[in-house]
Amino acid sequence: QQHNHRQLSSRILETLDPCVVLMKQVIGKYSHLWEDRGGIFSLAQGVVYWEPPDTCTKALQHAVMDPNLSSSLLHTYSPAQGMPELVQALQDKIATENGLTQHDVMVTVGANQAYMNVVLTLLTEHTKAVVFAPYYFNHVMAIQMTCGDDAVVVGPTSREGIPSIEWLEQTLRDQPDIRLVTIVNPGNPTGVSLSKEYLQEVVDLCRRHGVWLVLDCTYEYFTKPQGHQPLATNFENSDEHVIYIFSLSKSYSLAGYRCGYTVTHKQAAANLFESLLKVQDTIPIGPPRISQVVALGALQAGKDWVYKQYHTLDHSRDIILESLRPLVTMGGTGSMYVMARLPESLQIPRSTSDDDDEAMDVMVCKRLVKEYGIAIIPGSFCGFPGWIRVCYANLPPAKCQEAAKRLKMGIAEFVL
Fold first, then answer.
1. Rounded to an integer, what distance in angstroms lies between the CA atom of residue 96 and that of residue 94?
2. For a tag site, which of 39, 74, 342, 372 has the least CB within 10 Å?
């Protein structure tokens, strides 16, 4: 008797489907309906509309074209930690801007790979990790792929988008197999900035219970009002158990270059940095040099350049919130998202193409693409059924205003 061993990993099979890919497929399915009406406007994937700073282009041109740099080694492997000049620039940045002076930097292929490095390094069989709903779906997917769906412990968030400290304290007391807690600040998908006082409580709580805390700071500059830095990265007492994740994808519009970094304390337990290097060496070996060259150019522009770009989103944020006005909303104080709750009584007739098991918010989002030419993310994809997530950074303000009109019309038909 022959046995079929050509099977897929059960952990991969029970991992969430990639929701951005799914929404792009929906957009592709109906794009022909909107070819003569300006196309489908996407407020789904978290991207920014602006171009990278000129310093990125100049750095790239210099590295590729300067005859004096014929031995620039762009074609060779980078050190696993990252190119020394970029690592040093990031060390200077976190010391000056974040108050982190006793920490190591490791450059990664985007913030997602940084998080995957952390999960692979910290979690083992029969250990668990806490996320809060609404959660960033790729965080959950990383945990599921590594340890299975049972390893994901989902906590509640308040109406204001604040993860529950009371629930976390009780859960850490009751479940000693929890090893990792993840907080995103400013929030994706909540669009909420957490206070320094709140984060200090979480840091202290995780220290007392002997668990690691990941602070995903991807949107560190995306706060309102501008210049306010909610990332309490200079905590009182020790932060040896805290792992910080940063990204250049959003702030400097380098999503396609894939460049992020982890920050860990030099005195972190269990040789954390050296263990992270094992994962780094196995997955990318080293981040691409050409991406790191562009990242160095971005850092030359600096955070003031980012604040100037982010300021252009003020009007977009306002008109999106206005388009959602009939609904209860969450967010608007950070990152580039707002969420809105659909009425519980919402009833939409299903078409023949609808899946009978499809959540109402998923069906609403698909119908918005088809009938109104506007794409957003269903809350079900973030562990928050009955809600929707809207990104207000994807389009220039003028186009965002057109998108908001479509969204408002769709909400009026489906919800009111």
1. 6
2. 39
